[in-house]
Amino acid sequence: xxxxxxPRSVRKIPAAQLHVSKPTWWLESRFHFSFADYYNPQNNNFxxxxxxxxxxxxxxxxxxxxxxxxxEIFSYIVDGELTHADSMxxxxxxxxxxxxxxxxxxxxxxxxxxxxxxxxxxxxVWITPDQRGHKPQYGSREHRPEDRHNRLLHLLxxxxxxxxxxxxxxxxxxxxxxxxxxxxxxxxxAAVAHDIELGEGRQAYLVAIEGSLDVNGTSLExxxxxxxxSGSQSTQVTLKSxxxxxxxxxxxxxxx
Length: 256
Known about the structure:
1 helix; RmlC-like_jellyroll; Jelly Rolls; globular; 256 residues; Pirin_N_dom; Pirin; mainly beta; RmlC-like cupin; 7-stranded antiparallel beta sheet
């Protein structure tokens, strides 16, 4: 389908267009926005979403201790396990479906390592906070596969009111980010559909982590992404899994 034929509310970002990091023996990363060796002034962010990296980290390797300030950072583990350690004394390893959250605030140092032998895949996401200088904090949650199976799991919340979508599983109180953002993940069987309404003045970034997905007639394959825009009116969006099902992340936020 040509770009001109796509609904105005959906802008597809093919996986083939993502920047792949400089080759190294332990890491292969795909950058959705400008990061590290990749700089594109036309692709620095999508609203409050500043970084989304799809990382593959080989066994017994990872990101050594380094510092951050004024960023809401979370990692969603897709395969293997990811071990987090930080300057506040937190250290833990988390499996597939878990999320680690780090509010860097006024400054923190941490590491993210794959202590196992198999390759770990995770999505690392940075959100610009609502203000500078927040007190640093760390949090994590583990979720069962059934928590996100054919449902929208509200993985992280924010400072605003979450949308009143159907078939949402909050699993209690989600981790709260210092920004008006809501993060959902879902792992669906074939042909399962979620109908959502993107509110006026809202936007969302969607990533097909595994499998395939149809978004208002736009087809996404594994690692493809899409920008969803509502404009001056709310927009109805249907997310329908392909023949092999789909595992996706949806980041909903105030429009930029």
